[in-house]
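Q: I'm building a small set of examples for a reading group on sequence design. Run inverse folding on the following structure and report the sequence directly after it, with nothing in between.
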């Protein structure tokens, strides 16, 4: 660290001086690591154990009591089944770190959490975040009053060929909107990852062009903003059903050069994770694209199975995975389909091994009943509404 102003910058021989820190200072690169080590040592002393899967999840268990703590920088979410244990832990924590107990969870990371104990449901909303986004960037709409009921145009397509060449007139024109485009895309990604699966596809597509957006990409970003203006009150509601285990829905779109994978992970009938990702290799058939999409979903399933085991859950059977491609289902269980899968052998072996060991079981589901379809491509408004409803009420298979 450089010497602060007012102190000698060189020694008696003229050599420059630096300061050696004896403790971490807020804002420095290693400060976050130092804080995490300090806080985790406090938790370990109390009896918490860090999760093997998520280093920011800490678990305390006794014969009858459970205490789960999730850490985000210096914000903690605490889950318990014993109020007296919770009170004792907060007293212990307050004696070592200044702690502000907010009581029942209502807000976390600008997400509103609403519980209906009578209906045994929990809702997540980012309406306040969206309203703030509209207030900051609403002027970009330039008085546009048109309403959009979906975040994208079903006929629109995006590619790198649309990006303007550096030095061209369009590139110079788009330079003035570049910063706004990056900010909007980042906001859409945050919304899509937390409470808005309806934004997952368009947000991932817009993020591909943040370094050099075209006018078409910028117009698409503004359309999403208009869509949010009329859908800011949408919430993600969970109605847990203990009879429904961990399961997944997966789909892929082969219409573009690099296929798009989409997946939804559900636990107790609640969508706990979803994604829309562009595949990194070019698939030579729709079956291959769907198989790679399923392979990615299987990796997510393994993560959630391990996480749930860490939390004390047990699995009596395989995790069910639904796909709307019958060829993928056949390839999963066909051990002699070597010639058909030589070019994707490792992925095929990986999936087949897990299916053989009953870690996963692959099932077919009709395409119009597959909610993951909304994560892979732009669809017509009627289809968009139906698939979005399916995400909130996932079909059984």
């Amino acid at each position: 660290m450089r010497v602060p102003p007012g102190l000698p910058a060189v020694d008696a021989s003229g050599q420059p001086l630096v300061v050696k820190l004896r403790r971490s200072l807020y804002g420095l690169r290693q400060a976050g690591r130092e804080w995490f080590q300090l806080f985790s040592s406090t938790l370990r002393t109390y009896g918490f154990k860090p999760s093997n899967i998520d280093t920011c999840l800490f678990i305390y268990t006794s014969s009858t009591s459970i205490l789960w703590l999730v850490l985000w920088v210096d914000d903690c979410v605490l889950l318990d089944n014993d109020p007296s244990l919770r009170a004792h832990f907060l007293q212990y924590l307050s004696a070592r770190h200044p702690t502000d107990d907010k009581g029942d969870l209502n807000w976390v990371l600008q997400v509103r959490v609403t519980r209906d104990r009578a209906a045994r449901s929990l809702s997540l909303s980012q309406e306040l975040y969206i309203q703030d986004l509209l207030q900051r960037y609403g002027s970009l709409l330039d008085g546009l009053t048109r309403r959009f009921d979906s975040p994208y145009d079903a006929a629109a397509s995006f590619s790198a060929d649309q990006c303007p060449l550096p030095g061209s007139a369009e590139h110079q024109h788009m330079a003035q909107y570049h910063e706004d485009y990056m900010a909007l895309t980042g906001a859409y990604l945050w919304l899509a990852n937390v409470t808005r699966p309806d934004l997952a596809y368009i947000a991932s597509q817009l993020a591909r062009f943040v370094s050099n957006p075209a006018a078409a990409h910028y117009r698409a970003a503004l359309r999403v903003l208009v869509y949010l203006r009329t859908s800011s009150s949408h919430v993600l509601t969970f109605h847990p059903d203990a009879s429904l285990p961990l399961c997944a829905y997966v789909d892929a779109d082969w219409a573009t050069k690099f296929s798009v994978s989409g997946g939804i992970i559900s636990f107790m009938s609640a969508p706990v994770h979803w994604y829309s990702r562009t595949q990194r290799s070019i698939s030579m058939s729709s079956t291959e694209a769907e198989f790679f999409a399923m392979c990615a979903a299987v990796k997510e399933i393994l993560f959630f199975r391990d996480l749930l085991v860490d939390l004390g859950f047990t699995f009596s059977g395989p995790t069910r995975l639904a796909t709307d491609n019958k060829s993928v289902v056949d390839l999963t269980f066909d051990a002699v389909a070597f010639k058909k899968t030589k070019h994707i052998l490792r992925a095929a072996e990986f999936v087949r091994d897990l299916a053989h060991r009953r870690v996963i079981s692959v099932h077919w589901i009709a395409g119009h009943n597959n909610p993951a379809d909304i994560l892979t491509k732009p669809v017509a408004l009627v289809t968009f509404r139906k698939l979005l409803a399916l995400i909130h009420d996932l079909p059984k298979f």
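The chain has eleven helices and 13 strands.
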